Structures are given as structure tokens and as C-alpha cells.
Amino acid sequence: MGEVTIIGVDLAKNVFQAHGAAADGSVVFRKKLSRLQFTRFMAEQPPCVVAMEACASAHHWAREMARHGHEVRLIAPHYVKPFLKRQKNDAADAEAIVEAAQRPTMRFVEPKSTEQQARAVVFRTREQLVKQRTETVNALRSHLYEFGHVAPVRTAVQKSATVAAG
């Protein structure tokens, strides 16, 4: 059995599946690990390539793995799917991630920094609040219309912005 050169990880909320492979593609290990076990296990591994699907927690784990000296490769999930050999489960996903990451033409996602993730969270949260405000105003206008009251289409925020610009 060769030395591990790549580890494919299927991330989950509580239990991670790791698939270690040698340079020739032979399987070195298959492990099911809790979050705490995964952190300890990866810290003990010699620096190698760690491949994961780019999902909700992948950027966090990419930063953690980089701190341990590993080279991290994040792959968009739709690029991993063609490499599944059998039924979909966490172990099969981890193996498919290794297969996909070993392809010379594979495209990878750049891991985000904490600052980039924070900006994205602020942007998405604001976008959601604006959408909810619009839905609420539209629902209120609809309910008022049922009683014969026609409310203006613009909100007070939009009206004041129009007045200030004009």
C-alpha cells in the first residue's frame, strides 16, 4: 500500500467520510469520522491534496485543512456526479471526489476567506430582507384593496429616494 497523496472528503453536519488514495489510485483507507475525529485525523496526516465538494461548510474546512499544510481543492458538485460508480452514499461520494480531483482538466473553486464569506452573508441577508419587505408591502396593499383602499405602489423608502434624487 502506498502513501496517501490525496484525500477525498464528503462533508456532512455530523459525520464525514474520508477516502485516502495513493498516487497510483489504490485505496489506502476509507474512514467514517465525527467532526472532532476528522479535525484530529487530518492534523495527523502528512501534507497532501484534500478534495471536497464546494458546499456550505467547504470554505471553512478548506481554511482548516490549509492550516494543517494540506493543498485544498474544492470541486463544484455537478463535476463530481459523473464519477459516482455505484449508489449514492457518503463513502461513494468521497471516492468520486478523489476520482474527479485527479483529473488533469478538472476546474476547482477557489476557497473563500472569512472576509469574503462575511460580505456574502451580509449581501444575501440584505437581499432577503428587501424581498421580504416587498412581499409584506404587496400583501398589505392587496388586503387594503379588498376593503376598497388603493395604496401607492412605492414604499416610503423609494419615495424619499426619488424626492432626494429629483
Number of domains: 2
Q: Count all strands and give the number.
A: 5
What class do helices, strands and sheet pairing give?
alpha/beta
The CATH architecture of the largest domain would be 2-Layer Sandwich
CA-to-CA gap between the ends?
74 Å
Q: Using the coordinates shown, work out and report the CATH topology of the largest domain.
A: Nucleotidyltransferase, domain 5
Mean pLDDT: 90
Name of the level-1 CATH class of the largest domain: Alpha Beta
Main sheet, how many strands, which sense, barrel?
A: 5 strands, mixed
Strand order of the largest sheet: 3-2-1-4-5
Strand coverage percent? 15-25%
- Evaluate the radius of gyration: 24 Å
User: What is the assigned CATH homologous superfamily of the largest domain?
Assistant: ATPase, nucleotide binding domain
Low-confidence stretches are none
The best one-word shape is elongated
Helix content: 40-55%
Q: Which series of helices and strands comes N to C?
A: EEEHEHEHHHH
